[in-house]
Task: inverse folding
């Protein structure tokens, strides 16, 4: 019997996740970024991570074509940054502080940034599973931004 999509989404909403913004550059060198909560570590040796990219998401073509990407693990106070990159359309980088990274823009104030060379792209239904080989890591202290039952939450 097929699983009801509404019930399936409701069940998955009961899994608390961290929130990330993933950035890269398109073929012309312009910055591209999305909010992603489907993120996980995959391997310690070699260091691999993955995130799931919706086939209809803004910038999907840029991520698929790019040689790498950067995953930013968001801090509790970065809810506005998550909302900015979750929105459709517009220049998400307009007026936003960032600096050049190896694979894409680096955003300040994050708990961690993982700069990754694209290792694999795997089909995943209405998503592409993007696997990255982690080449550079920066970390900072702080509390994470969480997502649970369709809302942002704070740790603790």
Result:
């Amino acid at each position: 019997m097929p699983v009801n999509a509404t019930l399936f989404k409701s069940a998955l909403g009961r899994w608390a996740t961290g929130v990330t913004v993933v950035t890269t550059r398109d073929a012309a060198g312009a910055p591209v970024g999305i909010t992603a909560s489907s993120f996980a570590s995959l391997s310690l040796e070699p260091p691999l991570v993955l995130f799931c990219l919706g086939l209809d998401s803004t910038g999907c073509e840029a991520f698929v074509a790019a040689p790498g990407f950067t995953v930013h693990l968001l801090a509790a106070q970065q809810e506005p940054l998550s909302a900015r990159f979750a929105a459709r359309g517009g220049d998400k980088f307009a007026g936003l502080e960032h600096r050049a990274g190896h694979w894409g823009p680096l955003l300040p104030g994050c708990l961690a940034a993982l700069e990754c060379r694209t290792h694999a792209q795997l089909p995943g239904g209405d998503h592409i599973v993007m696997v990255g080989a982690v080449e550079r890591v920066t970390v900072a202290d702080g509390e994470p931004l969480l997502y649970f039952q369709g809302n942002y939450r704070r740790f603790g």
User: Anything to note?
Assistant: DSSP finds three helices and twelve strands in the chain. Residues 17-148 form a domain with the Pnp Oxidase; Chain A fold (CATH 2.30.110.10).
